[in-house]
Amino acid sequence: MNDEENKSLKHEWIQKMKSEGKIDKNPTKDHESGLKTLQNPTRRKILQVLTKTPRTLDEIKKELVIDKMQAKFHLEMLEASLFIEQTTKDNNHYYILSPRGKGYIDNAKMGK
């Protein structure tokens, strides 16, 4: 995917999130929420896991060796902060990186 396609997809995603009321009108609050979410190493590991391929809740908890309640808690925080999204395929729920999550991963790689 080229830069123009990425920009277009990101723009469409932002518009969708705004129309669903998921993006706070106050950018400071939105950034605070994102930073608070990323302070936890387990949540950062989940983002890393999702760079490889979409994963189910069970796959994530198994890979990170955490229980189901912990996995759900962290996934809900990441989803609320718009770093991940859920998708359904063949009656299974998968978690994927959102454009915001992909941006975080790309920036984290550049900072290494």
TrEMBL record:
SUPFAM superfamilies: Winged helix' DNA-binding domain. Residues 1-39 are annotated as: Disordered. Residues 1-34 have a biased composition (Basic and acidic residues). One of its GO terms (molecular function) is DNA-binding transcription factor activity. CDD domains: HTH_ARSR. Keywords: DNA-binding, Transcription, Transcription regulation. InterPro entries: ArsR-like_HTH, HTH_ArsR_DNA-bd_dom, HTH_MetalResp_TranReg, WH-like_DNA-bd_sf, WH_DNA-bd_sf. Pfam families: HTH_20. Residues 33-109 form the HTH arsR-type domain. PANTHER family: TRANSCRIPTIONAL REGULATOR, ARSR FAMILY, TRANSCRIPTIONAL REPRESSOR SDPR. This is ArsR family transcriptional regulator. It comes from Methanosalsum natronophilum.
